[in-house]
C-alpha cells in the first residue's frame, strides 16, 4: 500500500521564514506532534483523533484552524494541488512534526512533478526524505515530550532555524552545534519566539555578532497564513 499521510492543512502562500523567505509555496501541514513546545503556534496539529478524520476536500476548503485531518497518499495530494490550480513550484511540508512520517514517497513524487520541496522539522525524528529536499531543522531542546534532537537530523539540515526566547536558547544551540561544527553544512538562523520584542532584539544582536541569519515570521507581520 502506498504511504499514507494525515493532512491538517494545505494552502498556497509565501514562505515566511528562513532562507526561503519570500518564495511562493504550497504548504502541506501534517497532523501529529508529541514534542510539546509550550509556545507552539500550531497546537491544533498535535493530537490525532479518529473522530477528526474527514475528506481532503473539507481540509483544503477550511479557512479556520482545526484538529481535523484527511488521510491521503502522494498521488491524492498532487491531484488535489492540481485541482486547486496552485501555481507555486516550491512545496513546504510541515506540521505538526512531519518527520513522524516517512516522507520519501511524497517528496520524490513532488520532484517528479517538477516541484522543489522543503521540510520543516524539529529534528527529534529520523529525517526520511528525498536527497534533493531542502531540510530545515528547528531544534527543540528540553520540551515536555522528552524527545532529544538527533545528531543525524542536524547533519542532514540545510538550515538550522533556532527558536529564541532568552539567552538560554542561544546556549542550548551552542551546546548542540559546537561538537558538530566541522561536519555541519547548515546555514544557522535565529527565529524570535512569538514576535516578542526582547527575543527579536536578542536574536538580531547575536546574528550580527556571529554572522548568522535572522528569521522573523514575516507572514505574521503581514497577516497572511
Ligand atoms: C509549527 S513548526 C512545525 C514543524 C516542526 N514541528 C518544527 O517544530 O520545526 C514550524 C516552525 O514554526 C516555528 N514556531 C512554532 N511556534 C513558534 C512561535 N510561537 N514563534 C516562533 N516560531 C515558532 C518552529 O520552531 C518551526 O520552525
Ligand atoms: N507563511 C508561512 N510560512 C511558514 N514557514 C514555516 C511555517 C510553518 O508553520 O512551518 C510557516 C507558516 O505557517 N506560514
Ligand atoms: S515540534 Fe513543532 S509542531 Fe511540535 S510542538 Fe514544537 S513547534 Fe509545535
Ligand atoms: Mg507556522
Automatic annotation (TrEMBL):
Keywords: 4Fe-4S, Iron, Iron-sulfur, Lyase, Magnesium, Metal-binding, Queuosine biosynthesis, S-adenosyl-L-methionine. It comes from the Bacteria. Coiled coil: none annotated. Pathway: Purine metabolism; 7-cyano-7-deazaguanine biosynthesis. Substrate binds at residues 14-16, 29, 94. InterPro entries: 7-CO-7-deazaguanine_synth-like, Aldolase_TIM, rSAM, rSAM_QueE_proteobac, rSAM_sf. GO terms for molecular function: 4 iron, 4 sulfur cluster binding; carbon-nitrogen lyase activity; magnesium ion binding; S-adenosyl-L-methionine binding. Mg(2+) binds at residue 42. The keyword Ubl conjugation does not apply. It catalyses: 6-carboxy-5,6,7,8-tetrahydropterin + H(+) = 7-carboxy-7-carbaguanine + NH4(+). GO terms for biological process: tRNA queuosine(34) biosynthetic process. S-adenosyl-L-methionine binds at residues 39-41, 96, 138-140. Binds 1 S-adenosyl-L-methionine per subunit. Residues 20-225 form the Radical SAM core domain. Its cofactor is S-adenosyl-L-methionine; [4Fe-4S] cluster; Mg(2+). [4Fe-4S] cluster binds at residues 33, 37, 40. Its EC number is 4.3.99.3. Pfam families: Fer4_12 (PF13353). It is an enzyme of class 4 (lyase). Catalyzes the complex heterocyclic radical-mediated conversion of 6-carboxy-5,6,7,8-tetrahydropterin (CPH4) to 7-carboxy-7-deazaguanine (CDG), a step common to the biosynthetic pathways of all 7-deazapurine-containing compounds. HAMAP family: QueE. Belongs to the radical SAM superfamily. 7-carboxy-7-deazaguanine synthase family. This is 7-carboxy-7-deazaguanine synthase. The gene is queE.
